[in-house]
Amino acid sequence: MQMPGPARYVMAARLAKRLVLSCFLTTAAAPALAAGELLWNPLDPDNTVYLELQEGTVVIELNPVFAPKTVKQFKKLLSERFYQGLSFYRVIDGFVAQAGDESDIGKASKIPTLEAEFQIDWPTRPRDKNKAKNWQPLSWTPVQKGDPFAPYTGFIDGFPAARDKETGGKAWLTHCPGTFAMARNDGADTGRTDFYIVIGQAPRYLDRNLTIFGRVVWGMDVVQRIKRGPTLKNGIIVKDLDRSWIKSMRLASSLDPAQRLDIWVADTNSEGFKQMLRARRDRNDKFFHHKPPAVLDICQVPVPVRLEN
Amino acid sequence: MQMPGPARYVMAARLAKRLVLSCFLTTAAAPALAAGELLWNPLDPDNTVYLELQEGTVVIELNPVFAPKTVKQFKKLLSERFYQGLSFYRVIDGFVAQAGDESDIGKASKIPTLEAEFQIDWPTRPRDKNKAKNWQPLSWTPVQKGDPFAPYTGFIDGFPAARDKETGGKAWLTHCPGTFAMARNDGADTGRTDFYIVIGQAPRYLDRNLTIFGRVVWGMDVVQRIKRGPTLKNGIIVKDLDRSWIKSMRLASSLDPAQRLDIWVADTNSEGFKQMLRARRDRNDKFFHHKPPAVLDICQVPVPVRLEN
User: So what's the ipTM on this one?
Assistant: First the structure.
């Protein structure tokens, strides 16, 4: 059977209980599934990064929809093995771990600065029929209306995101634990190579102020072992020995398939995921003696990930 | 000079710039200070716990105001070196690290179960004059009105907390990264020895459902290195070698003073801290091209801590 789209695992919502391998071509196939089924997607090797540290392996999913220019330049740097031998030089526990060529803190760099990609216009169907033919709508799985930091939050293909309007308007990726973003100076267009990973309580006040271009999908425990700097000195780590170093940072598609991890990410558009959202919002479990308010923090909704052997 | 209260450091709000040692008997002395000064408090050795792991040292501040019974039994266990040789047997990255005698997952235990201490009545001045003489009001530094999970959030002597009314009403400690709480089964009064530390995005839906009785004040980077269990199997770690073990867990007052760390915690009642709150809420820095909403997440406000040599 010819498969133009990625293969997908389908799984009962009760995680890891029953595993049925099945093939669906697009999300459009989902309605054919029994209610509550959770779809699993593989990662696209052309938008997946393997970050190898002394501490272990971290897998990052890039997001070219929200940050096409940043992702393009970043991939070029990866192909040049730019990050190999660089380090996490600014690490503040509970906040961010930052790595790169240190141009963000004043070191000279020949890498071009990047245009800010803080938010996008919600994509609407082109009026031109030819353009409309290949046009793909963005998916949106709503999570919270009236979030403190945004009018609407939700998931866009696995990524925590926010919008200013229910239809149309602006959309942006939110700063949650595991968020992968480009550091910059005061100027909006001053990012270059230095990226950061959020390692603590979501610093949502940074939303729409920095270019988020990916998220950690595997190895946050590894990221949490990255060596910290002094919090009261802005996290800057002076001594080489006190830093965590990048052994390699490469695009999955440049690796031998045997070297890649067989990672499957829950489809945030699938009915099973939406059912998980409902169960988290409305907690009827007898464990809860005080019923929590029916609200969801977009950064406190885990997107399940599985590693197949 | 006789000092009935703890000595305090006073410091200009610009952290670590100018350090002036000074003695104040109570917070009431604060108005005599120049505006914006940040007070620092030492930890009370009778309510401070040293948790020694292979990964390093963690310092926890207990809260007997909110959980007097839990703290009392916990201190008794510490004095018996109960936790020495026990392990973190349930660890879910981004959620909690749980340790103890595993009675929470069904192991037999002779330790008595604890009464739930999920919230307190806001203490009001006793009508009886004699009782009122020694009565101490609770401090409250407001952070957010209309937080998604509580009508009011704020700090109570360094602890992130919430209330249902602006005056009086109920008060409770909130689940934030670093929160130290007692695990339990479905019954409210089933906690015993198994505690957990929050290691990820604040699970605020647990507020008022578990007894929070402390917070990590030093060594969250160490906590973040605790070995994780499999997320899809509820974090339970089967093999001994895959777990992080407790070398010792003792009350600071039982340690030789020379063995203790000289830790100072920012006073959340001090004018300097309130100034920090205002600056975080109203971000006028030129770094911000999109001005963030003027809201504060109680769990995303770091309480500064310093280690003196």
Answer: 0.89
